[in-house]
Amino acid sequence: MIEKVLFLAALGLAFPSSLEAQDAPPSLFYSPQEVWQIETALRHEQPALLTQAKHVLHCGSLVYIDQDQWIVWLQGEKWTPQTARPNLHILSVTPESVHLSLLMGGEKEPREVTLRPNQSFNLLTGAVMEGIY
């Protein structure tokens, strides 16, 4: 029994805890320096990964009660029948989709597009895509 306790104590000294090893758990595939480099790179890249492109309009989800009561999430913002923006108007909402009118800079006529939840509209190409971009 004492041998097991001594072995475990020696093992604990040989491998520092995750708090002591740059807050990273030990890895079977990478050295502590490589783990640190990977985590540093991910920390610097993460804001870029989470930033949505400015030329993409994303419909996150919608809640439809009736034609006068609904909520739509566009670009992460909650839209209701009372929400108004100068360049974007919600023309209609159904249980499955939202029909929008977009007036983009430089254009005289607005574009109309229909999006379902988790679809994005690329303002540069006019393409509707699944997912967020």
Topology:
Elements: H1 2-14, H2 32-50, E1 56-66, E2 69-74, E3 77-79, E4 88-93, E5 98-102, E6 111-115, E7 119-122, E8 128-130
Antiparallel strand pairs: 1-2, 1-7, 2-3, 4-5, 5-6, 7-8
What's this entry about, in short?
By secondary structure, the chain is of the alpha+beta class.
Question: What does the model show?
Answer:
The chain is an alpha+beta fold. The protein folds into 2 domains: 2-50, no CATH class; 56-130, no CATH class. The chain has 2 helices and 8 strands, in the order H-H-E-E-E-E-E-E-E-E. It has helices at residues 2-14, 32-50, and strands at 56-66, 69-74, 77-79, 88-93, 98-102, 111-115, 119-122, 128-130. Strands 3-2-1-7-8 form a 5-stranded antiparallel sheet, with no helix packed on it. A 3-stranded antiparallel sheet has the order 4-5-6, with no helix packed on it.
The topology string of helices and strands comes to HHEEEEEEEE
Shape: elongated
Number of strands: 8
**How many strands, which pairing sense, and closed or not: the largest β-sheet?**
5 strands, antiparallel
User: Mean pLDDT, rounded to whole units?
Assistant: 78
What count of structural domains?
2
**Strand order of the biggest β-sheet:** 3-2-1-7-8
Strand content bin: 25-35%
Please give the radius of gyration in angstroms. Answer: 25 Å
Helix share bin: 10-25%
* Structural class category: alpha+beta
- Low-pLDDT sequence parts: 17-21, 46-51
What is the CA-CA span between the terminal residues?
58 Å
Number of helices: 2
